[in-house]
Every structure is written in structure tokens, then in C-alpha cells.
Design brief:
Elements lengths: L18 H11 L6 E4 L5 H9 L3 E4 L5 H7 L5 E4 L7 H5 L6 E4 L9 H6 L3 E3 L6 H17 L1 H9 L15 E5 L3 H12 L3 E5 L5 H7 L2 E2 L2 H7 L2 E4 L13 H6 L4 E5 L8 H10 L2 E6 L10 H7 L4 E3 L8 H23 L1
Parallel strand pairs: 1-2, 1-3, 3-4, 4-5, 6-7, 6-9, 7-8, 9-10, 10-11, 11-12
Helix pairs in contact: 1-14, 2-14, 6-8, 12-13
Amino acid sequence: MFLRPFRRNDSPRDHYYYIKFITQPIVSERKLKDMKVLICDPVDAQMKRTLIDHQFSVDYMPEIDDKQLKSTIGNYNIVVVRSRTKLTRDIIHLGKNLEIIARAGIGTDNIDVKYALEKNIEIVTAAGSSISSVAELNVALAIDLARKITLLNGKAREGVWKKETGIELWGKTAGIIGFGRIGYATSKILVAMGMKILAYDIYHNEQSMNEIGGQFVNLDRLLNESDFLFVLATLSDGAEKLISDEQLNMAKEGTFIINTSRAEFIDGKSLLDHLKTGAIGGYASDVLWNEPPKEEWEKELINSKNVIITPHIGAQTVEAQKRVAEYTIENLFKRIGEMTL
């Protein structure tokens, strides 16, 4: 069977996963049962089942802590993590038999990728697996901010039955910082809801932009004109804050900010100040600077009435978790095949 790469415009249902295509050449070169796998975080049962079915030796330890990991990582050829486990330089250094780190998700900021590559350890991810789930969350958070759903729900539970007026998304401008797969998928939904799309990205995919009738602009214009600002970029090594105090001062009065990418893109203390004055109308985020929050200003921010925080649930749907398992396994087997041929 033929396995083609994931394409930007594919629906997740269009991305098929043919494990036999990958495993046949591997088995002829190496005994998979000799490869030991440690799964460090909770994953869909399909991942563990598939690895075992294809003769890997698998240990499933979804609550392993750093101390345990340091004492055992040397026994494994492959380590699978989600976002909870942090594979620091010290931990990776102890992986004397480690060949592959599989990130069951998209981002790799919990992995010291630079050091892993220096040690000739391969990195695989599940890129593309959570596009739909994150796009839907982006839109849900925008609607929540606009209509004050979480705020009014809390008041209703306290016995305060009082209406507050929100705004519609229809006719408003959405500013997309990071027009990749998730930015594109989010924009398609927003356009269907009657929004105008402006986007800022270092790479301009004009074909995708033309499909939604949007426009690439510079960051200054995007900040000045956006009623809703979606932070959907990828945090590269050494990247600086995209939205500091200077950029927040440039934002349209009352702008709502939705961030399901990385908290580090935004100056959190400055954001808190702008939320207090109402210069920024509201902030909804699936990511924090520390998860869970540690700093006092973080705690103050998440308890602000115009702030909505979710505990990193972008990919936390039944469908996305199945795709994460499938894509991670697919890319893992593909990489093993490349290493053994």
C-alpha cells in the first residue's frame, strides 16, 4: 500500500495509517522484540496495543517521575512522551541505549531537542494529529470571551441571575498569528461565521489564503485592526516574545486574545496590566507560562473575570487522541525503517 504525507487541506479522516507498509522492511532487518519502549505519559490504548502486536517490548509508566525516569531510561531504545514528561539534558544523557524519542503530540518544548540530536537520537512527533480539535477550541474560546459564557455561568451558579451584553463574531476581524495548519483550519471556521481574516506569518501560503479570502499583513497592522487575536505560531529555539508591552499598546482597544500555542509568545505581566485597564478586552488560553501556575502574577491573571484558562486540552478529544496514537506510531515505524534499511 502507498502511504502519502499529510497535506494542509486534508481532513483528519483523509489521513490513513497503514502499519503493514512500514513494518515489513523493518522486521527483515531487525527484531522488533529486541527494541524496548518506555511510554511515560497517558496515551490512547491503541498505541500500546499496536507496539505490543508488532513485537516491541513495552513498559507503560504514565505517572513516572524524574527520579524513576533517570534510573530506568538507560534500559530503553525508544521513549514516548506527551507534554507532562520533561526530557531534559540530564535525563537524555542517561539514555545510553536511547535511539528515538517519540513525542505523542506536536510541540517539542518539553524535550531538549538540540542535545538529543547531538547524541544522534532521532525525534518523531504526531504533527497534524490535533488540527481539528485545536481549531474547534480556538473558536469556542473566542465565542466564550465574546458572549461571556464562563463568566455568566459562574454567576448563575452563585445565584446571580443577571444578563450582560456581549458581541458577535460576525463582521469582526480575526488576526491570525501563525498561518500554518491550525491557523488555516481555524480561519476556515471563522470565515464561515462571517469574519474577515488577517494573518501574520514568516511564510506566506498564498493558495490557502486565497481559499479563505484573507490577507497577509505585517504585525503592526494586524494588531491595529484585529477584534480577535489568535496566537497560533510555533515557538522556535531562542524565539523572542512576539507580543510585548509595545505590541499590546498597539492592539485595537478591547481586543480579545486567544492563545492555544505557547504562553511564552506574550509578556504575561504586561498582559495582566492591559487586562486590568480594559485595553485588552479578554484573554482565553490553553497554555500558561508555568503549568500549573507558580508566579503570583500568573495566579492573579487566571482569576481575572475577563480571563478563561483551560489546562492544555487542545488535543484532548477522543478523536484527536486516536490520531495522536496513529500518527506517532506511523512516524515512529517510518523512522525505524529509515534507520535499519
